[in-house]
Amino acid sequence: MGSFEAIHDTRGRLYRIITNYLESQDIEYEESNFDKLEDVGIDSLGMLDLIFIIENEFGVQTGEIDNEVLEKITTFDGLVQMIESLRV
Amino acid sequence: MSDISSAVAITGMGVVSPNGIEVDQFWQASVAGRSGVREIDRFDVSKFACKIGAQVEGLENSIYYKNSWKSLDRSVVMALAASSEALAQAKLDLEQDNCHHYGIFVGTGTGSITTHEASVCKVVAGERLHPLSILRAMPNSALLELVSHCGFGGPSATYSAACTSSSHAIGEAFKAIQADRADLVLAGGTDSPLSPPLYAAWSAMRVMSNWSGNPKSACRPFSKDRSGLVLGEGAAFVVLEKLEHARVRGVEPLGFLLGYASNTTYAHPTRPSVEPEKIVMQAALRDAGVDASEVAYIYAHGTGTKANDGVETQAIKAALGEANAYNIAVSSPKACYGHTLGACGALGCVTAILALRHKIAVPTMNLDEPDPQCDLNYVPNEAQPLKRGRYALVNAFGFGGSNATLVVGTEK
């Protein structure tokens, strides 16, 4: 896991990616409710799309993460942890 | 003639074309003979003999355009825009209406091939593909997006039969409604064949116009000096529904789809033939219960190729009888917006309905000296009033030998 500052930076960048994504898809959302992204309106295909954007933005690759593990990453914090683990 | 219980009304129409986005602009441009043909600037055409095409301009300014669609193939974006206009005119409330018995039929000759070509280039360059590349590039990607947009749960299908694709989509939708498999169907076609590999393939086939003058004059249907087609892109969709269903919804029909027939020229994959084209027109008229003497207008396939225009002329005479053929307005607006392949039948359907409603035949531009073999009234260079008849034919003939004719009218 990175430093507090690094994680803070990751959270900020991820927040902007997700909000930009939701706005580009015309999905209305509660800003404080990223605990369960499916409830916000990001379905399984949307998660694939979003993870592709995250990979490009953060320069990480999810290719070696098992599908079953990846499918369980459905929250904002889960995405942050995924990014940080791939950066190590 | 169809009775009320089986009458299929057209209650909405939408268009994206090189000479006008939205039906009103498209109609005004078609009547005035305004051309959307120009030198292609979307990619390098310097190596090709033909450097012109009919590109859709200004789609990003359409009220139906959304930023989120930028990742989709142009053919899909155009389908969404044309469909949105048609659904709005039909006054469909996608939130409220019971859409379980509504269907979507799409015709496309090349599908999302531009997106697939881009994926191939990325793979060759060693780049990663987007995880939704399959959904964005598969031949039925327009249907996928339309289903997602509309939420219709009835029958759906994509027809790919080259230049007859959207005629089949509309015709089969008509049959599905008549067979009570759907109360309402959104049907039409879309194609965006203006990409370097596809353009190169068409160029290699030597069927494109070799006109070296003003690009707007390059497509010359029925003309003595015609030299080939001009590729274009576009989309058109119509909302078809049972007349009774439209009445219950309180929507006035714009016109009626009355007949449809299809057959195949099996003797050669690209060379047209009089007999099958005659047969398909006669079969469509029989299906509609319309006599040839009642036909006011024919939206000709009229590609401007050496092979098509003379054969189509002979087929029209054979199908409707010479006495009728010489009194019918026959035109090919493809001179103004090119050959949109899988979308051309749907553009023809919209044009034919508008021609009957306004009693105006749109012109065939660039027709200064007709081919002696092409001696019908092709409405040369200027729109004409329609003086007779209440019905129109829409012809489409495609590579692979696919032929299709639709019969439309403003009365049942």
Describe the structure.
The complex is a heterodimer of chains A (88) and B (412). Chain A is built from five helices and no strands. With 88 residues, chain A is an all-alpha fold. The longest helix of chain A has 21 residues, at 4-24. Chain A is globular. Chain A starts with a helix and ends with a helix. By secondary structure, chain B is of the alpha/beta class. Chain B has two domains: 4-255, Thiolase/Chalcone synthase (Peroxisomal Thiolase, Chain A, domain 1), CATH 3.40.47; 257-409, Peroxisomal Thiolase, Chain A, domain 1 (3-Layer(aba) Sandwich), CATH 3.40.47.10. Helix content of chain B is 33%, strand content 20%. Chain B has 13 helices and 15 strands. In chain B, strands 1, 2, 5, 6, 7, 8, 9, 10, 11, 14 and 15 form an eleven-stranded mixed sheet that branches. Chain B has a two-stranded antiparallel sheet with strand order 3-4. The longest helix of chain B is centred in the first third of the chain and has 16 residues, at 74-89. Chain B starts with 7 loop residues before the first strand and ends with a strand. The mean pLDDT of chain B is 94. Classes of the chains: A mainly alpha (88), B alpha/beta (412). Chain A binds chain B through residues 24-26, 45, 48-49, 51-52, and chain B through 66-68, 130-132, 135.
